[in-house]
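README, section 4: Worked example with a bound small molecule

Sections 1 through 3 covered apo chains. Here we extend the same pipeline to holo records, where the ligand is supplied as SMILES alongside the sequence. The molecule in this example is zinc ion. Nothing else about the input changes; the structure line simply encodes the ligand pose together with the chain.
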Amino acid sequence: MRDRWLADGTHVRFGVLANAWKETVRDAMADIAANLAAAKVEVRRAITRRTNDPAERKRMFNALAVDRWAEDPFLARQMRKHWKRGRNRTHDQIVVRADQHNTATGGRGRLWLAVPGLQRRQMVRIPLSTTVAPAGTLRLILHGGRVEVHYQIDASQMRSSQRPCGGRTVGVDKGYTEALTDSDGARHGCGLGELLSSESDRLKERNRRRAKLRSIANSAAGRGDHAKAHRITANNLGTVKRERQAARHRARVRTEIFTAVHRVVDKAATVVAEDLTKTFAGRTTLGKNVNRRLAAWTKGVTAEALTNVSERRGSALVHVNAAYTSQACHRCGRLGPRNGDRLHCTPCGVVWQADVNAAINILQRAGDPDIALHTPHHVVRQILQDRTDRHRTRLPVQDSSPATAERRANYPNRSAMSK
Ligand SMILES: [Zn+2]
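The generated complex, written as structure tokens:
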């Protein structure tokens, strides 16, 4: 399409420079392709719901794969429903190739970025808020009256990537008031709880005010006072400031979490953690619940930070099954009542810090012969109970070879244990 439009002169009608136009066409086509692919995922689901006949399913999957869905009424209807057309992310951004821009230092050490404007050989100069010159292909996005300069960096060149990792194996638990607690009892990213709760309070209050303003605007429109309704929508219900504040908050949380992970990797060659990505498979919609939204999002950032930092600094990340790690005593394995940030173990006569106890449990899971990453919850519970039962009856473990130990854990002889 791009070559055809270049050949027949269509591109001139857009009134922008050829290079920027080409990159934008590429962006737009990529958007269309992505939307098409996303729609097909939904339609495949619809096909499985519609029929159980393998031949019919195969026929429809095939038609979808080779883009002949328009001929089938059901598929055409489904595609029309799920293919979101007309949504374009390229309306507020352009791509500038590496050889098209340059940076210069102006007065008072300020960095200026120069990119081609609409007039030939006349550069548009943009003051940057950083002292690091962007390099490579740039994407300039107009966002809330500002220009965002996006570009790729080589992570191995970052200063934090040069920091060596530690030499130990450390378990970590994702906390509520701090980003991570490790198995040594140290807490990292202690500002996270405060950041999240203040943001949550702020959002709740602001959403309440916005709802009130929106209802005033709606009732004004209902009375026919459209000028007032418009004034409120334009002046009080905008999103520019909101987005800017949200972006700033996101950046703060990310810094807190990444710093926490760096602290752990400072002493660890192997980090043992719960797999924080897997719970996203359900894709539950959280609606308006601010707290849960924030919690779900931070979990994703923690997962990203663990993977990213481990990769860059050369430590290993081991995912373990975290079932019951927050409820079991790490010394005797018994499930105890958790009381806020405390875990009581009556047999041991100890009150543990719940998150430190969990981090130690997570560390121990890495070497657990019976509990694998995908062992189901109820099986984990059974294994833990069998172990403590064995303790209670002081039954000696007669054969401790791994094979029989595993079999015993899987098929415990309960009558022998209860004697
Ligand atoms: Zn105990």
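What to look for in the output: Residues 329, 331-332, 334, 345, 347-348 surround zinc ion (CB under 6 Å). The chain has 13 helices and 14 strands.

Section 5 describes how to batch many such records.
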